[in-house]
Inverse folding.
């Protein structure tokens, strides 16, 4: 019971307070100052040593809940998705049901395969360059051109440009300025942070769905909406709602990567040499930089699985928790607290099954390659004409351990050169 209380106070509550579905800037500012994730990592390391890496059964009234403490178990859990370890858990269904009740992530065993096939057909995982990479690259370059060419860059300014390009990539240029759509989604996601503790705004969800469907029905050439029109899927609006949700986290990862490059001159210069003069391109080093930013500060801090049958973890319905910051920042890793993009290029990351910036196994994020393309292409456009340096926020330096929790909302960068 004492260990369960420690996990609740030092891991679960800080994660929930920051906003699992939609980040809360005020809470993230507090988390950044107090470095909540550092305490969580230290606690799980002690628990791993005390229990020899075996899963920890948490004493939750009326529930069977286990906490994974070894990389081998992370690999087994994610490889065993969706049976016997389903990604559709009680908590996810309650949260995501606020805005995408038929999303693939919370679909049952009968509906999941078809929805997953549709998602993969549209997002093309495994292809570094999507078939629409050229129009996507043009949209990204145009939106990047609206960002400051001198002075400073803050999160709010970057985020406006990011959402414009996301709406263009997913829905077409006709949706570029439809901030109402994404504002509605934001409101629903804030409710989703409370999962089953907040009543569902069914009218708002229907208004959001109608607005989203109108954009999808245009099937604008050069956008994912056009691909959706060709592939076809009755629950497409729910799947697209999830893509928009995921692109929000991608924007955070992109801005954090820029902050890392701004504070690591050698890596910034190497990234600039990776850009070249033509787009679209794979931009391998910049992709590795984004991957390492997500390793350092996971946009999905808690991966959940629910058993569909009795297993060694417990009876059917057991919830299993994977706290990704612990596995990504394990103090035993030589690169735990430093920016190390090369580990995604030289095979070290592939050797560690607990490094899961986009999850892993059959339920790995189907949009990972598209996200990495958009993020690296945005970074290439920003770095092509400017160098950056950090202006404010926590110290990000190659000469000291990087913070365990990073508040991107209050980071500011200066444009130089």
């Amino acid at each position: 019971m004492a260990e369960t209380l420690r996990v609740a106070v030092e891991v679960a509550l800080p994660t929930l307070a920051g906003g699992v579905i939609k980040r809360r800037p005020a809470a993230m500012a507090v988390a950044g100052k107090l470095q909540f994730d550092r305490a969580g990592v230290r606690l799980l390391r002690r628990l791993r040593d005390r229990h020899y890496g075996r899963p920890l059964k948490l004493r939750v009234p009326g529930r069977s809940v286990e906490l994974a403490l070894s990389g081998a178990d992370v690999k087994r859990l994610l490889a065993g998705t969706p049976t016997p370890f389903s990604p559709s858990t009680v908590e996810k269904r309650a949260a995501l049901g606020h805005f995408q009740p038929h999303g693939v992530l919370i679909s049952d065993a009968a509906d999941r395969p078809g929805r997953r096939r549709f998602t993969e057909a549209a997002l093309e995982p495994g292809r570094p360059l999507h078939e629409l990479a050229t129009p996507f690259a043009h949209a990204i370059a145009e939106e990047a051109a609206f960002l400051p060419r001198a002075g400073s860059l803050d999160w709010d300014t970057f985020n406006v440009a990011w959402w414009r390009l996301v709406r263009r990539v997913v829905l077409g240029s006709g949706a570029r300025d439809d901030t109402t759509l994404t504002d509605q989604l934001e409101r629903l996601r804030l409710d989703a942070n409370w999962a089953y503790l907040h009543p569902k705004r069914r009218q708002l969800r229907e208004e959001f769905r109608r607005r989203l469907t109108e954009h999808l029905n245009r099937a604008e050439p050069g956008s994912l909406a056009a691909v959706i029109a060709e592939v076809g899927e009755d629950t497409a609006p729910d799947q697209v709602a999830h893509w928009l949700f995921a692109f929000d986290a991608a924007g955070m990862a992109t801005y954090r990567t820029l902050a890392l490059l701004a504070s690591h001159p050698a890596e910034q210069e190497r990234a600039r040499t990776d850009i070249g003069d033509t787009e679209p391109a794979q931009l391998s080093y910049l992709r590795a930089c984004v991957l390492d930013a997500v390793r350092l500060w996971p946009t999905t801090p808690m991966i959940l699985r629910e058993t569909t049958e009795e297993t060694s973890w417990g009876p059917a319905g057991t919830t299993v928790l994977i706290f990704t910051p612990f596995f990504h920042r394990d103090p035993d890793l030589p690169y735990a607290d430093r920016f190390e993009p090369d580990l995604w290029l030289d095979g070290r990351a592939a050797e560690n099954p607990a490094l899961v910036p986009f999850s892993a196994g059959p339920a790995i994020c189907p949009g990972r390659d598209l996200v990495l393309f958009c993020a690296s292409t945005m970074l290439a456009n920003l770095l092509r004409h400017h160098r950056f340096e950090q202006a404010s926020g926590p110290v990000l330096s190659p000469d000291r351990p990087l913070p365990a929790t990073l508040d991107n909302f209050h980071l500011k960068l200066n444009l130089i050169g």
The first strand starts at residue 56 and ends at 58. The chain has one domain: 2-416.
